Amino acid sequence: MSRLTHVTSGPYAPPGPARELTAVSADGARLHVEVHGPVDAAVPTVVLAHGWTCSTAFWAAQIRDLAADHRVIAYDQRGHGRSPASDVCGTDALADDLEAVLAATLGPGEKAVLVGHSMGGMTLMAASGSPRVREHAAAVLPCGTGSWRLVAEAGVLPLPAGRLRTGVTKRVLGWRAPLGRVTPAARRILKYATMGPGSSPGMVEACARIVHACPRAVRHAWSQVLDLLDLDHGVRELAVPTAVVAGTADRLTPLVHARALVAALPNCVGLTELTGLGHMTPVEAPDVVTARIRELVADYAQIKEGA
Question: Mind listing the pLDDT tens digit for each residue in 5-55?
Fold first, then answer.
């Protein structure tokens, strides 16, 4: 499990959950799940899936806002945050884990807006054809994500696109060395690679602490999964209303991915391009991302009177 070194004060400090539980995936992997907001089931529900090297702490700003009038479910992907590592890594495991979380937190037929950032967005694509996701998903919001050619399209390194950049990028993303403590140099590197140039020091600090907490073995194992990713079939099976959010300065999953998703989705309800923002859009533009979630809830997942 990750070392919990996230920020402890300010807008990016994770709020305490109303309830914590453990969901058990198909292969026995145990997943840490948090439930925030009103315990009354007669409120809209939002499920949050974080990305590679992150944790539930990544969603602090969204949870803090939405939990006032929504039930918010956030979970740690296997090996991240408080979820123990597993020998099994792959998109099928991501899909099984999401199914397990939905089974543990939602009643029969209960609808929710599913939100995924980066690898969390890939989780939504991987699980799009599963009966449980089809039962529970009212709408979907992928942020800063893609379905294939992640390493080939990544622009983290200032090299021309091609075999050399792809090979070096693969080695950088799969770096096995520990990241160590968060230093000024580490903040500069993380900001350059994952955030827009206008990101505030508080945003950078929050992201750096979360990313540096991820165990190096977990970071490496999942980098190999991302390198081989091909989820185009999952995109085509996302039949529910799906909105996409992307930063125009995203170096990890450049805008080409978001536009490809929009072109392939069978029920796309909009692309929000955030000018000058990077990969960490829920942290860089928390109000915009939260507002988009609220819009999806209002349009597709409102609780009916008398429920």
Answer: 678 888 899 999 999 999 999 999 999 999 999 977 678 999 999 999 999
3-state secondary structure of 145: coil
Number of Cα atoms under 13 Å in the Cβ half of residue 274: 26
Collapsed DSSP state (helix, strand, coil) of residue 266: coil
User: Cβ–Cβ contacts within 10 Å for residue 8, how many?
Assistant: 10
Phi and psi torsions of 257, nearest 5°:
-70, -45
Is residue 48 within 8 Å of residue 72, measured between CB atoms?
Answer: yes
Closest CA to 56 of 18, 14, 119: 14
Collect all residues with Cβ–Cβ distance below 8 Å to 187 and sequence separation of at least 6.
Answer: 201, 204, 205, 208
CA–CA separation, 305 and 92 (whole Å) = 37
Q: Can you give the pTM of this predicted structure?
A: 0.94
Residue indicated by tokens 């990305």: 51
Q: For the segment 156-197, what is each residue's pLDDT rounded down to a tens digit? A: 878 788 888 888 878 878 787 778 899 999 999 999 999 999
What is d(CA 10, CA 228) in angstroms, rounded to the nearest whole number?
37
C-alpha distances in Å from residue 272, one per residue of 136, 187, 229, 245, 248: 24, 27, 24, 5, 10
Q: Cα(203)–Cα(287) distance, rounded to whole angstroms?
A: 13
| 8 A C-beta contact, residue 154 and residue 254 | yes
Where in the chain does DSSP place strands (E)?
A: 19-24, 30-36, 45-49, 71-75, 112-117, 137-143, 242-247, 268-274
